[in-house]
């Protein structure tokens, strides 16, 4: 795909300084720009590169005034970083705007879909599946019976959506994600073996939820596992049965959340965090990476460590921990001195 400077300026509501007809077909860092590429300058420390870049077009802030001759065409905007992000989003929309049904696929006669639908090869739609408008299902995707998918949803290659799941509008599910696998429900019997507890619930993703690659969200034992509007999940996360995650909470990779835990709104959870089951975490909580959460957490707490402590207390304690060898040496020296004094008396 090629875009001219004038077309890009139109999308960004910017002003062209240079050749409005020059075209680009790829994106690049400003220090690696070459002919036919588009880049941007937002951080002042990268300003020297604008005089040497070979990028055909550079997006800059309106207040940028060059001090040397430029070979790149400028597009001046209010905020170069935001404008470049907007352009990336537009580019992705154009690139991923596939429609039609490839072959071979399996689609149940009872499955229905809306307009501008795309279904990649070797994908499967089960009985009574309902899919909205502008949904893109990439190759090798499995969608089980009675699944409901809203509008403007993207399901990337190899994702699996088990039966009864509900996917809201504007959701993105990345490759290898599994929505609706059985919760880890087993009960020991008199023989010391485990009996399976049927998992009869489902998973609900509200609008604008992103699910990273390789992430698993288990169906509820009864009721629903629920991710509220705007939740963002990184790759390789485990969400257990009957968990509920509040609006606009973001969780980094390799975090595990055990069953029936409730997490509030606008929380930020770092990578490799472990959270036990059947607890409640409040709103706007921040949990540092590799922390272990084994208790209820109040609104606005910031935690670190395993088991997790208040973030400030953790840092104070860590200072002492780092100095522990010195403290041990001091105690030993005091004990030796004490013994010498006792012998002397």
Automatic annotation (TrEMBL):
It catalyses: a UDP-3-O-[(3R)-3-hydroxyacyl]-alpha-D-glucosamine + a (3R)-hydroxyacyl-[ACP] = a UDP-2-N,3-O-bis[(3R)-3-hydroxyacyl]-alpha-D-glucosamine + holo-[ACP] + H(+). GO terms for biological process: lipid A biosynthetic process. The active site is at 241 (proton acceptor). CDD domains: LbH_LpxD. The keyword Iron-sulfur does not apply. One of its GO terms (molecular function) is N-acyltransferase activity. Signal peptide: none annotated. Residues 22-89 form the UDP-3-O-[3-hydroxymyristoyl] glucosamine N-acyltransferase non-repeat region domain. InterPro entries: Hexapep (IPR001451), LpxD (IPR007691), Trimer_LpxA-like_sf (IPR011004), UDP_GlcNAc_AcTrfase_non-rep (IPR020573). Its EC number is 2.3.1.191. One of its GO terms (cellular component) is membrane. Pathway: Bacterial outer membrane biogenesis; LPS lipid A biosynthesis. Pfam families: Hexapep, LpxD. The keyword Plastid does not apply. NCBIfam families: lipid_A_lpxD, PRK00892.1. Homotrimer. Belongs to the transferase hexapeptide repeat family. LpxD subfamily. This is UDP-3-O-acylglucosamine N-acyltransferase. The gene is lpxD.
């Amino acid at each position: 795909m090629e875009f001219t400077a004038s077309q890009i300026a139109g999308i960004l509501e910017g002003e062209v300084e240079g050749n409005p007809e020059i075209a680009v077909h790829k994106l690049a860092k400003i220090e690696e720009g070459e002919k036919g590429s588009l880049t941007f300058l937002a951080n002042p420390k990268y300003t020297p590169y604008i005089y040497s870049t070979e990028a055909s077009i550079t997006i800059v802030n309106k207040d940028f005034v060059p001090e040397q001759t430029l070979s790149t065409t400028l597009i001046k905007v209010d905020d170069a970083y935001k404008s470049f992000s907007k352009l990336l989003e537009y580019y992705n929309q154009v690139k991923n705007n596939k429609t039609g049904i490839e072959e071979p696929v399996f689609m149940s006669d009872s499955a229905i879909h809306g307009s501008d639908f795309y279904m990649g090869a070797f994908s499967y739609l089960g009985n009574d599946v309902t899919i909205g408008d502008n949904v893109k299902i990439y190759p090798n995707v499995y969608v089980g019976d009675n699944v409901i998918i809203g509008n403007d949803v993207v399901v990337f290659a190899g994702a699996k959506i088990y039966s009864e799941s509900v996917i809201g509008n504007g959701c993105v599910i990345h490759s290898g994600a599994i929505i609706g696998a059985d919760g880890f429900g087993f009960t020991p019997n008199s023989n010391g073996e485990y009996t399976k507890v049927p998992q009869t619930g489902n998973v609900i993703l509200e609008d604008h939820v992103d699910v990273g690659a390789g992430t698993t969200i288990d169906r509820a034992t009864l009721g629903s596992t629920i991710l509220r509007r705007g939740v963002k999940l990184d790759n390789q996360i485990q969400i257990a049965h009957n968990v509920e995650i509040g609006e606009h909470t973001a969780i980094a990779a390799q975090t595990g959340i055990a069953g029936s835990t409730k997490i509030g709104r606008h929380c930020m959870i770092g990578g490799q965090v472990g959270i036990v089951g059947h607890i409640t975490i409040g709103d706007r909580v921040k949990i540092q990476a590799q922390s272990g959460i084994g208790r209820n957490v109040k609104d606005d707490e910031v935690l670190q460590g395993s088991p997790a402590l208040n973030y400030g207390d953790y840092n104070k304690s860590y200072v002492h921990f780092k100095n522990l060898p010195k403290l041990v040496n001091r105690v030993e020296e005091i004990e030796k001195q004490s013994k010498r004094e006792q012998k002397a008396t």
